[in-house]
Amino acid sequence: MKILQTPVRFRPFIGGVENYVYNLSRGLVRLGHEVTVLCANEPKSEKEELMDGIRVKRLPYIGKIANTNITPSLPIEILREDFDLIHAHLPTPWSADWSAVFSKMRRRPLILTYHNDIVGAGFANRAAHLYNRTALKNLLNRADRIIITQPKYLRSSPYLKRYEDKIVVIPVGVDVERFRPMHSDKINNSIFFLSVLDEFHRYKGLDQLLRALVPEEMLANYYNRCDIFVLPSVSKAQEGFGMVLLEAMACGKPVVCTDIVGVADEVKTKGAGLIVEPSNAEELAEAISHILQDRSLAHKMGEVGRRLVEERYGWEKVAKRVEEVYEGLI
After folding, report:
1. What is the pLDDT of residues 93-113, one digit of tens each?
2. Using DSSP, how many helices (H) and how many strands (E) does the chain show?
3. Are residues 37 and 47 part of one domain?
4. Number of domains in the chain
């Protein structure tokens, strides 16, 4: 099967959607499919390359609207490609909208992974509101299948309810070989940074500090060095799943999260961590303290979390489920 993926960006850009598309595509290649990715050339890389069996074509862009790169050559590039289906991704439009146009023109199925709602602040919020009232409806109507990563999103999103008949729930995955329990020395050196964390204090440079301290290739080591992983997400519209929680669990770490996170129900029922109410700092503090003060409990939670991701969330299993969606449309 020839699969065309059209995310707005791709590796080496680091982000949740980029990670999803890379690992899903790699899994599909291992299942014997041909995968091509069309994306913006950000950060600037080779214009065309083969990455883990994935053919990647990077296109020049003229700027951004909110978080979406505008790639004028995308329509032409889609026309040039030979594909059996297109797999597009939201919440960054443009690529997804052009994918819908040419999937219909070429009479090929369109699969859309709806990671989360399109929202923003200021001008970006006004642009998102306009898009959601117009182009989004057209995109959802044209999609043959819509993949969401957790069932709660069907209830919380104001845009998905009328499309329930073509929605499939398939979670994100985790690389259980890369993210695994390993021996790691505790951190001896410490750095202290203090600032208000809002848009008006971006000039403090926290983003640059984080880039300097957290290289992508060291993530598994950092997960293993911690005692507990916390993801206190507060926005149902913006938190599509919470992939980092799976990575921490794969490393055998107990977790604390809110019920917004996609794997929250299983964390609770299996006993891999604790679930707290969103925006409840007191409950969050109690959950963290409870786990940190009970080493036996923390160890047990970590083991449960590792078993859970091995059984349900390996990328190979996720890719196989997506493959079944594809085959049902071809």
Report:
1. 899 999 999 999 999 999 999
2. 13, 13
3. yes
4. 2
